[in-house]
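In this supplementary section we document a worked example of the pipeline. Step one takes a protein sequence of length 160 as its only input; no multiple sequence alignment statistics are reported here. Step two produces a three-dimensional model, which step three serialises into structure tokens for compact storage. The input and output of this example are shown verbatim.
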Amino acid sequence: MKILKELIPYIVIIIVVVLIRTFIVTPVQVDGSSMYPTLKNNEILILKKYDKSYSRFDIVVINSDHGRLIKRVVGLPGETIEYKNNKLYINDKVVKQNFKMNTKTSDFEKVKIPKDSYFVMGDNRDNSADSRVFGTFNKKYIKGTIGIRLFPFNKIGKIK
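The serialised model returned by step three reads:
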């Protein structure tokens, strides 16, 4: 009985950690250079699983048939998206992108984004397999947004 009393705090801690990682936040590791220069290979980030409202230019984690992807939301449900002359057009209007990209974006034809789906792209546009390759992603495959960078330690903080 005494051993059980001593183990209860450890059991509670384990349960709390499992619940937090399952429903609230969990670490994810960047694999590859598709989000360079914003994110670099092997950086450790915190995935906010509870954040299910996705805005334009949020960085999200997607579990898909193509593996786990970390990309930036560019197009929202019901919109049309197109790139012409290195400019982003949403519903035929130019939208400014306030983040650094590694390369210019190749032109692509207008895409109508279905209800409950998102058009995502990497910041390293020439080296990113994203919605231009795989198509749009239904929100059920998006696991949450990226909140902060944990590693490397000299770059800890909110990701823009």
